[in-house]
């Protein structure tokens, strides 16, 4: 478990999981079956799918107890697989928060399917579908390239919503394929600032220096009315993408940010870098008003020095924080 999610669980934040399961309902046309799957990446979803199509719903029926959805799909194009019928009916039930099935009812979507015996199933409920546009079949010599190309067309389209573009960015962000990086860069020129910043976050997570700098600029002086989820995305970009010593001065600057969450992201990145140049900002972070920032400072300094006697786990730090912060402040004053 990563430090970030450990922190979230200790703060008792809700963590949403998603999944789909097929209901064994009698349907006369070809049906889909689905099951709960682990978190997926775009590349893994493309690989596990036997069939990937671009489709539009012609009708849908929803029931509430239990929550089920039956959707009749008209297949527009096939990106992977063969012998796909022109019409497919899918029926599934949502368990928890079922991501990406709602838009399937109302818009053109890229849908992942898997052959199971004589039926088609959902290989990964995390990626039931992604946004798509009705345009010439996307370029690509392989299925992943075709999917990335389709999401790139979504980002270039003026006909899709910002939420669909954000969905495309999030899916592309899970793939380290260089073609996905190229597609994300295209979103940097989107007319919507929020979309630009979402792309910046994903590129920053890849360690892109220009995007990391742009993320830092935004977090140091956030524009008014910028959505909190966009700020959080930028913080993730800093936390996970800043790994070079050259970025230490910007991280030190972020330790002056007003928002606790921004300082937390900077402190975590400094801990991971662990270079000699990280020492001064980590020592300064020992006196931060936020406990998580102070913890990151303690762990970063202890790791840097190799002093496991003063490298606490979270419960020990909470039990006797003063022991550790005092030790490292004294150490800094004599070294």
Question: What would your notes on this structure say?
Answer:
Strands 1, 2, 3, 4, 5, 6, 7 and 8 form an 8-stranded mixed β-sheet that branches. The two termini are 33 Å apart. This protein has a domain at 19-131: OB fold (Dihydrolipoamide Acetyltransferase, E2P). It has helices at 3-10, 42-48, 143-156, 162-173, 178-186, 193-205, 209-220, 228-241, 248-254, 260-273, 279-285, 291-305, 314-319, 321-334; strands spanning 18-21, 32-34, 51-64, 67-80, 87-96, 109-116, 119-122, 129-131. By secondary structure, the chain is an alpha+beta fold. Helix 6 packs across helix 7 (209-220) and helix 6 packs parallel to helix 8 (228-241). A hairpin with a 6-residue loop joins strand 4 (67-80) and strand 5 (87-96). It has 14 helices and 8 strands.
What is the CATH class name of the domain at 19-131? Mainly Beta
3D shape = elongated
Structural class from helices and strands?
Answer: alpha+beta
How much strand?
15-25%
Specify the number of helices.
14
Any idea of the CATH topology of the domain at 19-131?
A: OB fold (Dihydrolipoamide Acetyltransferase, E2P)
- The number of distinct β-strands equals 8
Distance between the termini: 33 Å
N-to-C order of helices and strands: HEEHEEEEEEHHHHHHHHHHHH
CATH 2nd-level architecture of the domain at 19-131: Beta Barrel
Low-confidence stretches: 1-39
* Overall pLDDT confidence: 83
What portion of residues is helical?
A: 40-55%
């Amino acid at each position: 478990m990563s430090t970030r999610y450990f922190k979230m669980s200790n703060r008792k934040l809700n963590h949403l999981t998603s999944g789909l399961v097929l209901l064994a309902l009698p349907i006369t046309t070809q049906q889909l079956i689905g099951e709960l799957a682990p978190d997926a990446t775009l590349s893994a979803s493309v690989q596990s799918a036997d069939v990937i199509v671009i489709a539009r719903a012609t009708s849908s029926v929803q029931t509430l107890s239990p929550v089920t959805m039956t959707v009749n799909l008209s297949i527009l194009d096939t990106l992977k697989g063969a012998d796909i019928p022109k019409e497919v009916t899918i029926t599934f039930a949502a368990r928890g928060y079922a991501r990406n099935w709602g838009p399937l009812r109302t818009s053109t979507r890229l849908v992942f399917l898997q052959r199971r015996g004589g039926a088609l199933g959902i290989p990964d409920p995390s990626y039931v579908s992604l946004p798509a546009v009705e345009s010439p079949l996307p370029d690509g010599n392989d299925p992943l390239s075709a999917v990335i190309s389709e999401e790139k067309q979504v980002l270039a389209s003026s006909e899709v919503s910002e939420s669909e573009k954000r969905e495309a960015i999030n899916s592309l962000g899970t793939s380290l394929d260089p073609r996905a990086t190229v597609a994300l860069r295209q979103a940097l020129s989107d007319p919507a600032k929020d979309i630009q910043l979402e792309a910046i976050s994903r590129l920053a997570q890849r360690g892109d220096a220009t995007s990391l700098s742009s993320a830092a600029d935004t977090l140091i002086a956030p524009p008014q009315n910028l959505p909190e989820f966009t700020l959080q995305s930028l913080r993730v970009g800093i936390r996970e993408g800043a790994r070079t010593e050259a970025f230490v001065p910007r991280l030190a600057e972020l330790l002056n940010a007003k928002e606790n969450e921004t300082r937390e992201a900077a402190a975590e990145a400094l801990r991971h870098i662990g270079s000699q140049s990280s020492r001064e900002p980590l020592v300064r972070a020992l006196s931060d008003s936020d406990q998580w920032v102070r913890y990151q400072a303690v762990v970063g300094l202890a790791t840097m020095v190799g002093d496991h006697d003063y490298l606490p786990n979270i419960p020990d730090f909470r039990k006797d924080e003063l022991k550790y912060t005092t030790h490292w402040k004294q150490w800094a004053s004599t070294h």
